[in-house]
Design brief:
Pfam families: NfeD. It is a multi-pass membrane protein. It is found in: Membrane. The chain is of the alpha+beta class and 209 residues long. The chain has 2 domains: 77 residues; 80 residues, Beta Barrel (OB fold (Dihydrolipoamide Acetyltransferase, E2P)). It is 42% helix and 15% strand. Strand 2 and strand 3 form a beta hairpin. Helix 1 runs parallel beside helix 3. It is rod-shaped, with a radius of gyration of 37 Å. It starts with a helix and ends in a 33-residue tail after the last helix.
């Protein structure tokens, strides 16, 4: 069998190796890649020992390089963004920002109530104060549509926990109630209270005879 068959199978191995990262196939493409490289080495060794060892050295050197390159590119692919819950155009630097687009600091969101827009397993998207944010659930998964509260912000990451509808209603009622700390309004004072009259100056002789 001609030697170029071996190099053709080597090229097919590289393609399958990249597709294994880009397409969720449950490992089927990876198995096909392993079968392909074994076939390529078999053809090379069948041609000559020199060709076989040469192809083996090429595979040993290039495969780790392809792995590193694909791992760096994978978070920016559609499947990588979907698994990482990262929206298109969002980078790790954007995730590290500690302020919202309107300049509001993330720390100001602590204690605010929102809703989960996606499942948090443990990370996902939430909506707080009409702003969509990447968030991390504390301790348990959170289903999409469930009410959440922001518990803390650490290193640019928003941490949330689920709350019941009773907790949500109580918090919203407390926020809507008037401020009880305002000083009470004092009643208007009389211009001439009885204590201000001078009874000594009153004319007592004006009584009838």
């Amino acid at each position: 069998m001609p030697l170029y068959y071996a190099y053709g199978l080597l090229l097919l191995f590289y393609i399958l190796l990249v597709l294994e990262f880009m397409i969720p196939t449950g490992g089927l493409v990876g198995i096909a890649a392993v079968v392909t490289i074994i076939s390529a080495l078999a053809v090379a060794f069948a041609h000559s020992m020199t060709a076989g060892f040469t192809l083996l050295i090429i595979v040993a050197i290039t495969t780790p390089l392809i792995f590193v390159a694909v791992i760096r590119v994978w978070p920016h692919t559609p499947i990588g963004r979907r698994i990482l819950n990262r929206r298109p155009g969002q980078t790790s630097e954007g995730r590290a920002k500690r302020t919202l687009s309107n300049g509001t600091p993330l720390d100001a969101l602590v204690g605010h109530i929102g809703i989960a827009k996606t499942n948090l397993l443990p990370s996902g998207l939430v909506k707080v104060d009409d702003v969509r944010l990447d968030a991390v659930s504390l301790g348990m998964p959170i289903d999409a549509g469930q009410s959440i509260i922001v518990t803390k912000v650490n290193a640019g990451k928003v941490y949330v926990r689920p709350i019941s509808e009773a907790e949500r209603a109580a918090a919203e009622q407390a926020a809507a109630s008037p401020n009880a700390s305002e000083p009470p309004v004092s009643p208007p004072s009389l211009e001439n209270p009885p204590e201000s009259f001078d009874f000594d100056t009153m004319d007592l002789d004006s009584s009838p005879n």
